[in-house]
Amino acid sequence: MEKSVYEPKEQLNLLYGKMEHLMSMLDSIEPEEAGVEEIDRIIEMLDEIENKCKKLRTNI
């Protein structure tokens, strides 16, 4: 379980980390071999990042 972070700067750093993780995941996937599970995970990660961005925007 993630620890709550209240400082906007720390939240932004965590968001950057999530985006870097997503980018490395996208770099490692072979498009012709990507399965439904991998695509679903990417969509889930994008949704998480979007929600974190919305929360961060309201906290700043």
Topology:
Layout: H1 8-28, H2 36-59
Helix pairs in contact: 1-2
Question: What do these coordinates show?
Answer:
This protein has 60 residues and is mostly helical. It has helices at 8-28, 36-59. The model has no long low-confidence stretch (mean pLDDT 86). It has one domain (8-59). The longest helix is centred in the C-terminal third of the chain and has 24 residues, at 36-59. α1 (8-28) packs antiparallel against α2. It is built from two helices and no strands.
What distance lies between the first and last C-alpha atoms, to the nearest angstrom? 24 Å
- How much is the radius of gyration in Å? 13 Å
**Quick one: overall form?**
elongated
SSE string, helix = H, strand = E?
HH
| Structure summary, number of beta strands | 0
**How many structural units, i.e. domains?**
1
Helix content range of the residues, please?
Answer: over 70%
Percent strand equals under 5%
Largest sheet: none
Provide the low-confidence segments as ranges: none
Give the number of helices.
Answer: 2
